[in-house]
Specification:
- The complex is a heterodimer of chains A (about 240) and B (about 130).
- With about 240 residues, chain A is mainly alpha-helical.
- Chain A has a single domain, classed as Orthogonal Bundle (Cytochrome Bc1 Complex, Chain D, domain 2), CATH 1.10.760.
- Helix content of chain A is about 40%, strand content about 10%.
- In chain A, the strands form three sheets. A three-stranded mixed beta sheet of chain A has the order 6-5-7.
- In chain A, β5 and β6 form a beta hairpin.
- With about 130 residues, chain B is mostly helical.
- Chain B has one domain: Cytochrome c-like domain (Cytochrome Bc1 Complex, Chain D, domain 2, Orthogonal Bundle), CATH 1.10.760.10.
- Chain B is globular.
- The termini of chain B are far apart.
- The relative contact order of chain B is 0.23.
- Classes of the chains: A mainly alpha (about 240), B mainly alpha (about 130).
- At the A-B interface, β3 of A face α3 of B.
Chain lengths: ~240, ~130
């Protein structure tokens, strides 16, 4: 049995075998901070999200119905005929069903709700985006990931695939798996979305980032989820 | 055959690189540029004999000994547009503005370093005549 498993693992492409979450590259103290809910600052946002959820959302949803949702987002949105990420989905719910002004991207309210909903999927595997309607966005995400950009003329591939595990000045370059979002970043002193992280990588190579909510980020997220399919969700993660 | 032709072309391309400015480079200013991770950016990827900069990268060979390995013309070619030597290199082209994609507005149309700064960096690299510590 064990031998079959080992053989199966060998048959996988190298990238699938040694995929590692950014968690594994962190200092022990930072790992301990993420592991212990009492120490993890991201849990403050989760708690706020829970309050908001109980106040604004339980007329239509239950906590249990949110389990596993984050693992299959971004998903196809019938209403707009386009892929939508989890934060976009929550905003759309506020706008369409609650008939209230949707919270802005990166606002405290939306981060808290997204963290709370994603936290319900902690430990669950990210599912592969197999909906055929997502295929064009998946292809766009792959292209964006391979494209050189900015004054420094670097692609995501060159750092996160070709040089993962090496040091860019003081930082170990992670493999860019989106397992922990929204997450608490020590550098931000706060919680931030995957889009905020991606903007950081784009401005880091001195390129013009896309606007918050842009379809390009959703496409990149679909591609990153395809790469990370099967890895466990960590929300709220902690990163340096 | 085509590969051989390319190999032969590279050394002649190197020899063509004349100084970018009339003023000779200043090694002290060059060191400051190399050490500054928002100007030279070199230590994001390279390490070098600049002990006061604690966090140095390991994506590229150490800069130690660069002055033993390369001439000024070779270093100039490498800095101005090293992608002429290796199109897949991650090292940015420091004095090229064309062929780039989605450059941030603040940097659009500007090279990473000015001509004189490149000459200063070359002057500094030429002083690095000790191999890296093992």
């Amino acid at each position: 049995m064990r031998r079959t498993l080992a053989l199966l693992l060998l048959a996988l492409p190298a990238s699938a075998q040694d995929r590692r979450s950014g968690f594994e590259d962190m200092a022990r103290e930072t790992q301990a901070m993420q592991r212990d809910d009492m120490q993890n600052p991201g849990m403050l946002w989760v708690a706020e999200g829970e309050e908001r959820f109980n106040r604004d959302c339980t007329s239509c949803h239950t906590e249990a119905s949110m389990r596993g949702v984050a693992a299959r987002y971004p998903a196809w949105d019938e209403a707009t005929g386009a892929p939508i990420d989890l934060a976009g989905r929550i905003s759309a719910c506020v706008e369409r069903h609650q008939r209230a002004t949707p919270p802005a991207r990166e606002s405290q309210a939306l981060l808290a709700l997204t963290a709370y909903v994603a936290h319900q999927s902690r430990g669950l595997p990210i599912s592969r985006p197999t909906d055929p309607r997502l295929a064009p966005a998946l292809a766009q995400g792959r292209a964006l990931y391979g494209e050189r950009r900015g004054q420094l003329d670097l692609s995501c591939v060159q750092c996160h695939d070709d040089n993962a595990g090496r040091r860019l000045a003081g930082s170990v370059i992670p493999q860019a798996h989106p397992t922990g979002y929204p997450l608490y970043r020590l550098e931000w002193q706060g919680l931030g979305s995957l889009q905020r992280r991606l903007r950081g990588c784009m401005t880091g190579v001195r390129s013009e980032p896309f606007a918050y909510g842009a379809a390009e980020y959703v496409a990149l997220e679909i591609f990153l989820n395809d790469r990370a399919a099967g890895m466990a969700i960590e929300t709220p993660a902690v990163r340096p | 055959m085509a590969i051989l032709a390319l190999l032969l072309l590279i050394p002649s391309a190197r020899a063509d690189e004349a100084p970018l400015t009339a003023t000779p480079g200043d090694a002290t200013r060059g060191r400051a540029i190399v050490a500054d991770r928002t100007r030279g950016l070199c230590l994001l990827c390279h390490s070098g004999p600049i002990p006061e900069e604690r966090f140095q990268g390991n994506l590229a060979p150490p800069l130690d000994g660069a002055g033993l390995r390369w001439t000024a013309a070779e270093l100039r070619l490498r800095l101005v547009d090293g992608k002429r030597l290796n199109p897949d290199s991650i090292m940015p082209s420091y004095y090229r503005t064309e062929g780039l994609h989605r450059v941030a507005p603040a940097q659009r149309g500007r090279p990473i370093l000015a001509a004189q700064e490149i000459e200063d960096v070359i002057a500094y690299l030429l002083t690095l005549r000790e191999e890296p510590p093992r």
